Amino acid sequence: MKITVIGTGYVGLVTGACLAEVGNDVLCLDLDKAKIDKLHEGVLPIYEPGLDEVVARNVAAGRLHFTTDIDRSVAHGTVQFIAVGTPPDEDGSADLQYVVAAARNIGQRMTDYKVVVDKSTVPVGTAEKVKAAIADELAKRGLSLDFSVVSNPEFLKEGAAVEDFMRPDRIVIGAEDDQAIHTMRALYHPFQRNHDRTLVMDIRSAELTKYAANAMLATRISFMNELANLAEVLGADIELVRRGIGSDPRIGYSFLYSGCGYGGSCFPKDVKALQKTGEENGVPLRVLAAVEEANDAQKQRLIDKVVSRFGNDLSGRRFALWGLAFKPGTDDMREAPSLTLIDGLLARGATVCGFDPVANHEAHRVLGERIDYAENPLDALDGADALLIVTEWKQFRAPDFDRIKQSLKTPLIIDGRNLYEPAAMRALGLEYDAIGRK
Ligand SMILES: NC(=O)c1ccc[n+]([C@@H]2O[C@H](COP(=O)([O-])OP(=O)(O)OC[C@H]3O[C@@H](n4cnc5c(N)ncnc54)[C@H](O)[C@@H]3O)[C@@H](O)[C@H]2O)c1
Predict the structure, then answer these.
(1) Where in the chain is the domain with CATH 1.10.1040.10?
(2) I want to staple 203 with a disulfide (CB 3.0 to 4.6 A). Which of 20, 174, 324, 392 is the partner?
(3) Which residues form the UDP-glucose/GDP-mannose dehydrogenase C-terminal domain (predicted)?
């Protein structure tokens, strides 16, 4: 199939590369010339495990192309995926300007039938707006061409995006007409050889499904974080509580970890946008208001721990910070809890040396020279008063604890991701303060 993917970011590039991998002829469009230039040079604009190989293989095979030329991109694909950003507007609602601009671009240029697929996370009713924008542009041209609009939300996780796309646990398709449903089923058939995981539904339900999924996941995190805070005061251990409740199949173990708050490009904005949708429709989503409030507070937990240990004036103090990306497996710094912590430390006069296995470069783009950057985790410790852990990269799980103890001025680890056993840390002579641990 000939496919165009509009927006070559975390979702668009993975979608385009994986669709090419199964044999489709894919053209990825982005308005960011620097991004497309990099891709033409064989350099990926983002870090995503395994993606570089898939991109290189399919570029070499002539199935994956990149462009900034909108005429070419509209002409190319019978299927046009919209995978542009939907950042929060000032009032928390999803800003649809990029989605609507992409739709208008299609309406201004199309000359034959297109299936236009909303892959961006968009509020209920967006497919109708996309349809109206295309119809409006066609009317201006005096044309009445057939087209379908489909909602096909993306559930991939950054850090495992290629794997998630190649082996999806579900493919949600919101569509109204048989031709579009047939096209989408054919497109996704190669990704579900084992058994069909397609859920075909009406467009509004598909749009709501994506927000419901992210809101539920964010709710589990905030719930566990608040319980961890309570456990800490009560002298209980949240790790034991987690196992105690995760064993109930109605609850399950996944996504039950407490920590220093969720970040990233999706949960914060999607929780806000869904609340806004509720508000606009006279249905207040009180649970989500609490989820957001709890998360904002949780992002302050590490700074609170630092202050209670060293006092509010941190001038002359230096902290090593392990993990800058919002989660392991990505270089994405959007809404990362590390940023809240860094702001809090710098505002109190401290200096910070950060280390991240892949996000140092992106962190430097965001933070510039506000902090120092180390080339490896142990170098970050030199001259530091304590080690603060913000992202649970695998390489932090079993570090050289003796070296940590020797390097730090105070043998203290404040762990926002509960990576270690408190008793083992005590036995090593390290002070260890985690989230909700005894
Ligand atoms: N990142 C994730 O893990 C994830 C997962 C599922 C869903 N989503 C959703 O997917 C969408 C995209 O997210 P992302 O993280 O890939 O964003 P991103 O910011 O990484 O990429 C978006 C890209 O779209 C480009 N763009 C904007 N307007 C354009 C236009 N008119 N034509 C062509 N290109 C245009 C931008 O230059 C940018 O490169 C969002 O709605 C997001 O909520 C993201």
Answers:
(1) 211-297
(2) 174
(3) 320-422
